[in-house]
Structure prediction request, 639 residues.
Amino acid sequence: MAKLIDTIQLPQGLRSLNAEELKQVSTELRDELIDSVANSGGHFASSLGATELSVALHHSFNTPEDRLVWDVGHQAYVHKMLTGRKDRLGSIRKKGGLSGFLKRSESEFDTFGAGHAGTSISAAVGMSTALQKTHPERFTVAIIGDGSLTSGMAFEALNNAGALQLKNFIVVLNDNEMSISPNVGAMSWFFSKAITSKTSTIARNHFKNLYKKGYVPEIIYKAIDRAEEAAQGFIAGPSMLFEAFGFRYIGPVDGHNIDDLLTAFAHAKQQDVPVLIHACTIKGKGYEPAEIDPIKWHGVNPFDRSKGEFIAAKAAPPPRTPPSYTNVFADTLADLAKENPEIVAITAAMAGGTGLDRFEKVHPDKFFDVGICEQHAVTFAAGLACEGKKPVCAIYSTFLQRAYDQVVHDVCIQDLPVVFAMDRGGVVGNDGETHQGVFDISYLRTLPNMVLMSPKDENEFRHMLKTAVSHPGPIGIRYPRGNGLGIELDNELKALEIGKAEVVCRGKDVLLICYGPLVSYGETVAQRLQSELGLSATVINARFAKPLDRELFAKEIPNYATVCTLEDHAVQGGFGSAVLEFVNDEGVQVRSPIRRFGIGDIYVPHASQAEQHAALGYDAKSVFDYIAAQHQTKRVVGL
Prediction:
């Protein structure tokens, strides 16, 4: 038999279906989602948990005219399937395929692009405010998870929406963490239905009109209003919080019960004030392994659906698998914290992603997860530093962008000894534009008191961590996503001299000044130049983007006909720009223009990291080809 979802036009066809048919659609979509992600990988558990929610939303609202604003995008795979992208879901996060997040250029149904958490309500407030001037009949619905709601920006937006008393404005809180017993949930939902029913809403509006016309004294109006809030909040504590923001609260609703969801949305559409619907869902719903361990199944590689095993785990591991930079960071920091009792580690809801879950097992009393609020994480660290602690803020490069003012105002101006461990520095592959960590050198090296460094390999990384926790001021280390080179790790850690570079190999024809892991590309290029063209190259491991090794650079740069800088970062304002500024300001003589290899003036789309390096022209082959072409041109001119 044909699937129901294959016989209707999505999402419009959903609006003619009854509740039982919508349940069938949900079952079919969940089944296809499991099959698709099993083959392609992707964000999984969150989307499974939002299946019925996605179906009910597109049934209840006239999308895309009514705006659905999803937070982050982890929960939006079913939304993509419902909006013309079901047959392309297997391409998700692959080069040229669907984005793993929301993307306005991908579909008119993706009303706001998102990859970072906590943006949906703010964007929805802006949309709703504009639409009330042009299309006041349209609805704006923000869908946000309970994790994202810890973002301070989300509460700022709730406050603003309540103050504006926006009509046709709804926030759906997709709560997959809060545990609510059936009896309590049912009773609270009973109150919500009573207060937001059509009859109650008509009566409330009539009563409000009488009050506005002066027929009802203010003291009576407010007393009844407070009594209504008390009735709803008697059992459901969360309602009191959102009512304080000026929202009418509906819930908790079973987010997997289509009937309840349709009722909640119907009641919400009748209100004349902002509404918050509290939907309780189960992350990983419908696939038992994901329900049991939703963290493990949050973002996945391809897996065997029947066995619940990741396919990559079947392959025999290589004789020696290099450790990931993330794990090297966590384990080294744990060792350093044994030596220095003042070291503490901070994450913004990314304990697993940053490796600090490993640190927490060793030092539970030195670990802090502050939730999805990078701004608070940085200023919290600044406060700790004021009292003698050595805080290490482990935040992805792309997420540290969110706390830029705090880095400037709260850390650098006060010259506080906060360590910024910037994981995912450089392109990160399949997560796409919102997650590439390619701006941190630019946005941090302009700050007085800041020191910036990046290791060539995992062994040097360990020494840099020792350097960082020994430094008396702000300092940042950027390191890439993925594994190290598999080299031996030193047992004894030593602090590096701040601003001192390292000459990796010497030659006379070409100078390659490399920052961070791209030193390995420089070494590869040098070997090919020697073996294929008979050219010798000097490779410098810069180590520091700020301060530069001014003495070494001033000595070396004038000696070479070809000078290149290599970095896994935007060239505008990046490491190469720092070298150019130094050459210009110090009047260093160059024999030809310095060529900077890195990322041009673009946002990097999703693909594998290797594909991105090649497409952006700073992999070893691209650098070699450029130098070879330059050498050939000079030979022709010389003839």
About this structure: The chain has three domains: 12-299, 325-478, 502-638. The CA atoms of residues 303 and 313 lie 9 Å apart. The chain is about 45% helix and 15% strand.
